[in-house]
Design a protein that fits this description.
single chain, about 300 residues, alpha/beta, 7-stranded mixed β-sheet, 14 strands
Amino acid sequence: MANSWWELQIVCDLALEDSIFWRLEQFGCRGTAFETKGYSYLVRAYIPQEQVQLLDLAALSLWLRQDALVLGLPIPTTHWHLIDEEDWASSWKAHWQPQEVGDRFLIYPAWLPVPDQSDRFILRLDPGLAFGTGTHATTQLCLEALEMRIDQESHDIVADLGCGSGILSIGAIMLGAEKVYAVDLDPLAVRATRSNRTLNRVNSDRLIVEQGSIDRMMKMIDAPVDGVVCNILAEVIIDLIPQISAITKPSSWGILSGILLDQTKPVADVVEQNGWTIAALWRRQDWCCFNIRRS
């Protein structure tokens, strides 16, 4: 079945949510959803059949078991089965509900009817096969940090490195950014960002998205940017910091996330070595978000 997907069902302790989502992202899962089952989570994740073998799934199950043992938490149970491509999209979407993030955002699945009234920005989203639904701690931390950095008077030009579904780019525009340049190595993420740009009625000249990394970003911008948001992984962020410095103004700010608690020191060292100051470090469970500014 060329168009089949593995559906993974993981029942775990509530405290394991972050480590499991991190493992699933590293493993290459495209869509994830979770629901509370008493004192446990039921996590559903999806990955193309052709991308992994049964031995790979068994290895993932072992990693999840080892993570729980290291943290001293109950061992999760993991099951998997094949479903058709049409079924996987509807399956995880059925468990993804509107979610308030920060003080100003309401992340709203694109397939649900929009409420008549809301005192929040309604950010409609269909992530497709891209990362970024607003349910993960790293995305929430970035949106909350953007609320502190951008308003209707700032007119900031922002770079979004690793844009995923486009949730952070669109959020920045809603808050008041004048323009956002976004890049992602995954063509599916570029497609999702463009689709969500249209869904939220953002003009294409305000949110410019292309496939690539920071090298592509350097060709897209015509002047240094006011701010950078980068929600990827610590190892990638460390490599990008010198180039981030090259595309930003002397007064620029940055939001870096996707960083586990035990990875904060090497990230902080590289940030400071490249002329940035750590203005704040926000933590949510095992994940951290750096709010930085140029020294």
